Amino acid sequence: MTPTTASTTASAADAAATGADRAAAPALLIRGGRPYGEDVADVLVEDGTISAVGPDLSAPEGAEIVDAEGCIVLPGLVDLHTHLREPGGEEAETVETGTRAAARGGFTAVHAMANTTPVADTAGVVEQVLQRGEDAAWCAVHPIGAVTVGLGGERLAELDAMAGSRARVRVFSDDGKCVSDPVLMRRALEYVKTFDGVIAQHAQDPRLTEGAQMHEGRVSAEIGLTGWPSVAEESIIARDVLLAEHVGSRLHVCHLSTAGSVEIVRWAKQRGVDVTAEVTPHHLLLTDEEARGYDAVYKVNPPLRTRADVEAVREGLADGTIDIVATDHAPHPADAKDREWDTAAFGMTGLETALGIVQQTMVDTGTLTWRDVARVLSETPARIARDLDQGRPLAAGEVAHVLVWDPRPAAEVDPEEHASRGRNSPVAGRTLPGRNRLTLLAGRPTVRDSRLAEH
Amino acid sequence: MKHLTGIGDLDRASAIELLDTSTRMVATQERQMRKLPTLVGTTVVNLFMEDSTRTRISFEAAAKRLSADVINFSAKGSSISKGESLKDTALTLRAMGADAVVVRAPASGAAHKLAHSGWIDVPIVNAGDGTHQHPTQALLDSFTLRRHLGGEQRDGERAGSVDGQGLDGLHVVIVGDIMHSRVARSNVQLMTLLGARVTLVAPPSLVPVGADVWPCDVLYDLDEAIALAPDAVMMLRVQRERMLGGGYFPSAAEYTRRLQLTQERADRLPAHAIVMHPGPMNRGFEIAGGVADGPRSVIVEQVAAGVSVRMAVLFHLLASNAREES
Ligand SMILES: [Zn+2]
């Protein structure tokens, strides 16, 4: 990471923004938990900052003591791929409800995708989203800027203006649409080098996916839904890693979903291409078999793939080919899902179930350690986005964005209990492990025992 | 059987039972008083969100011959074409007191959604959903096959009673646009369920990726399939838009050269083999006019069988359910 002048200045702005909260927060001692799932150590938080980490810390007078025996202590989670829907999609979600959902999921920062109405393609819109996030104060909200004007895929948006705005945008994406024009993609990759930005590509060849409804394979052939071939994703990723190599830029691959995509990213990393990749919780868990009942809650972009793909993305996440887990939280009003598959909306909620799915699919299976979870759900997403105070170590002197996660209880997922406006959870009715014991945003509790702590 | 949304709702025994009932329905249609009182007082709604006069009329005739009241609810000029959802339509039909809904829709899964989403709780009959299923078409095709080729003899003569029989030992070739065909999907499932061997013939660009696990063979060459001496050949309608917009094949000439059932090809079939088409036909494209009208053709008979088979389906869904309730 090479901080530029611009990001250093913005760092000061960030600190100023959370400073007020920090001063107001009372001292808090997290006692008996296991940071990163390793040795037991207490974590003392004072004035919004971690002041000490170690065994048997004594609580200062008046400090609240949180019993974290048996719990895992992690840096607050960071989501690089969230649809907060505001402005324009308030029926589905608002910054307020989306960040409440994020807090319940253990997140202390989300990156809000640009496909709003109006599109987040100007400094004005990204600053508005930033402001809404600050007002809601459930987690940090980092707006993602559109790559092209209106997500139209024709000309670059004013990337530098968004980067230089108070929102300090570093991640740019036309998510939901692919920057399919190779020349435009090349220019975007080059241009963001000015401010150490990254292009987060939604890899989907538009011609190969016209009318596509679900993964193209045995299930689509049988149930008669238009197929979405793996190659539509893989061909764009292959092109993009070569472009990134050619121009020496940073590329981030959104929600990679196929075994072939994992292979291509693995190959690119071996060549030294500066590429990072994400996988969603739902692609770690679910397959195209879910489409058989035509329940559109399982309709998502990219589509649920096969069991072999699920195995491949888990393996890719385990060996570091895939850098992070990001939710692609995509809430929709009930009407957009309770209808024929063809006309239903793409997308699933994810913020409030992400860590449970990661625990179930990766930790409980012995594939990832909790140290790895901190890496893929906090440290690396923050690093990719150049967030300065998120994804930091649990160490004295760091801003206290902390999650205390109890991995022991298991509960059935009931979307009616979710803080998100979206009820379109693909894991409704499934049992997931873990509970959000406590989430701290700059030392202030946002969640206690999976309930929002009003402020 | 609560609904008929696809062949997956049937097992071999219930499929044969439907075919046997269809045979009995044919007998009633040969009487002078064709109308049966079975479904007096029941209302069958034909919900057609896609144009298909042939199928709608067939279902309407079937329901009326069982003395049901029929309401035709078609997409043209209705609220559905103005953006009302299938769900809203279902709620409307429920309020209207429909006892069964026959649904034709452009969306794959529409019938399944009606049957299983809790919007309406009456038997649902799938009259064709997108590129998924068209179970009554498959039933009438199997009915026609059994009638002609079942029993001991295979000389095209009726071979006495075929009740209780499947299609064991028969070999059927289905030719055309497999990818977009709900008829092909339903027929592969039903014919193999009934013991027949099925061979599909299509250009590779019209075979869906993932069809490799279907219980049938896939060939790209019609002549190769005819050389296997099948008992029946079914030609599927090929929509010209597939050629122009989709680029699935280069030209009509190239398609017909490789895949049209010409007189010359029909002449190479075994003497007893029959020619089928679910209609509507593109004469001179997938099938030569002379073959469609020729002695092997059972195409008109398929249409007649359609009414009897749909009577049997409505009978099983409505009359049998009513018996269970009382
Ligand atoms: Zn996307």
UniProtKB/TrEMBL annotation, chain A:
It catalyses: (S)-dihydroorotate + H2O = N-carbamoyl-L-aspartate + H(+). Zn(2+) 2 binds at D175, H202, H255. Pathway: Pyrimidine metabolism; UMP biosynthesis via de novo pathway; (S)-dihydroorotate from bicarbonate: step 3/3. Residues 411-438 are annotated as: Disordered. Pfam families: DHOase. The keyword Disulfide bond does not apply. SUPFAM superfamilies: Composite domain of metallo-dependent hydrolases, Metallo-dependent hydrolases. The keyword Thylakoid does not apply. InterPro entries: DHOase, DHOase/Allantoinase_Hydrolase, DHOase_cat, Dihydroorotase_CS, Metal-dep_hydrolase_composite, Metal_Hydrolase. One of its GO terms (molecular function) is dihydroorotase activity. Belongs to the metallo-dependent hydrolases superfamily. DHOase family. Class I DHOase subfamily. Catalyzes the reversible cyclization of carbamoyl aspartate to dihydroorotate. This is Dihydroorotase. It comes from Brachybacterium halotolerans. The lineage of its organism: Bacteria, Bacillati, Actinomycetota, Actinomycetes, Micrococcales. The gene is pyrC.
From TrEMBL, chain B:
Its EC number is 2.1.3.2. Residues 168-316 form the Aspartate/ornithine carbamoyltransferase Asp/Orn-binding domain. One of its GO terms (molecular function) is aspartate carbamoyltransferase activity. Heterododecamer (2C3:3R2) of six catalytic PyrB chains organized as two trimers (C3), and six regulatory PyrI chains organized as three dimers (R2). HAMAP family: Asp_carb_tr. NCBIfam families: asp_carb_tr, PRK00856.1. This is Aspartate carbamoyltransferase.
